[in-house]
Design goal:
With about 80 residues, the chain is mainly α. The chain contains four helices and no strands. Helix 1 packs across helix 2 and helix 1 packs across helix 4.
């Protein structure tokens, strides 16, 4: 029986060059957001959904740091840390 579009699972494979570096960048960004009085989870979710760096403070170079990492790499690190 033929399958329609969207019925097959697509495999996604990506290798992160330095997972520890991504995690350190996330921690630095999180701490910078806290220091500036922002809700870091809301700000990071806004950034992850939109890709708009304005959600991230420039305090401690946080905005520059997070822009060095692809959002899909960030998502992979977060999922690995959360889901183990």
């Amino acid at each position: 029986m033929p399958q329609g579009p969207g019925e097959n699972t697509v495999s996604f494979k990506r290798e992160i060059e330095d997972e520890d570096q991504v995690y350190c960048i996330l921690k630095t960004v999180y701490e910078a957001l806290v220091e500036k009085g922002y809700n870091p989870l809301n700000q990071l979710v806004g950034y992850m959904i939109s890709g708009e760096p304005a959600y991230i403070t420039s305090h401690k170079q946080a905005r520059n740091l997070i822009c060095k990492v692809d959002r899909d790499e960030i998502m992979e690190v977060l999922l690995k840390k959360y889901l183990g």
